[in-house]
Amino acid sequence: MISERSCCKVRPFTVSMNLDNINFNGNHIVRRYEDIKSIFKSTDISLEDKNPVIYEVFESPVPEKQGHLIFLVTILYPGKVNEEFFMTKGHYHTVENTAEVYLGIKGKGLILCQTKSGDFEVAEISENRVVYIPPFWAHRAVNIFDEPLIFFGIYPAHAGHDYETIAQSGFVKRVFSKNGRVVIE
Ligand code: M6P
Ligand code: ZN
Which residues does the chain have with pLDDT short of 50? Predict the structure, then answer.
């Protein structure tokens, strides 16, 4: 059991959601092409020199302990690795029976979801659309538009990120731009 004494060193607080200057005073994760190029189907020499930021995450300063909720804002930039849209690494939660909620703020994207038993689902995310990711479902965001995809997220702080399972087996589907169309294959 988590006691009030161990949990409540954090006092109630507020942060600004000003998109021009997001700073939640927590971790700021920046993932560039070179950091995550292995998640894409093919490499793209045209991105090697520029090494663009694919996405960044602004996290809340909350302990990764059961009882707390981590909230964050993700900015997934527009672009493609050859024909494949920019996307996040994607993960299961280490504590698998934990869910997550996304709220679309700007842009348009897809959230690819899958389970270890082979189930797969695609959820659309856009401004004011809420996506519910149930426990046991891996999730990856894909930006299918020509503007940044920005979404707010919230999940149990003890959930953890399991990237290893995705690194080994990947997602069952990928999202490409082909002849101006979004193709999931
Ligand atoms: C969302 C949340 C975060 C996650 C981020 C980037 O904001 O799910 O927990 O870190 O997307 O995704 P990933 O960790 O898979 O790279
Ligand atoms: Zn998650």
Answer: none
